[in-house]
Every structure is written in C-alpha cells, then in structure tokens.
Amino acid sequence: MGALELREKWKQSIKTVDIRFLQMVDALYEGYFKNEVVAYHPDGTPMTRQEYKMALDTAEAQIDKGDYISADEFEQEES
To answer: What does the pLDDT look like over 34-70, one tens digit per residue?
Structure first.
C-alpha cells in the first residue's frame, strides 16, 4: 500500500478511533519528528527539531529581555 492509499485510509479511520488510540498515535508522531534534523548549528553540526525549538525559545526570551543588538551594530562588529 502506497502513501496516498495509507493517507486516505487514515483520513477515514481517524473519525472512528477512541481518544486512547489518538493519544498513542500522537506520541508516536511526536517521537518520530522530535529527533529529525531540521537545521544546523553555526559550526555545521545537525540540529534536531527539539534543539531548534529550544534555540527559538531562548532567542525569544532574550528578545523579551532586550538582550540583542541592531543590524547596524552587528555590521560594525564584523568590520
């Protein structure tokens, strides 16, 4: 059975399964994608989806605290 057939089968089945089954499928889905490489660190090492989310959360917290520099300041540092 190919991907299209499986997707169609699950679209129909999803309407009839109970909450316990849905929770198990959700846990499987999250576990499958948690360790997927989605980006790379500046040094070139792979970054998983979980690491990427943590990096985004850290960056957002830094922005909220005002812990950042402007693009102009960054360009001056590079000179």
So the answer is: 788 999 999 999 999 889 999 999 999 999 999 999 8
DSSP string, 17-75: --HHHHHHHHHHHHHHHHT-EEEE-TTS-EEEHHHHHHHHHHHHHHHHTT----HHHHH
> How many whole angstroms separate alpha carbon 47 and alpha carbon 58?
15
| Cα–Cα dist 74/9, whole Å | 52
Q: Give per-residue pLDDT as tens, 15-26.
A: 899 999 999 989
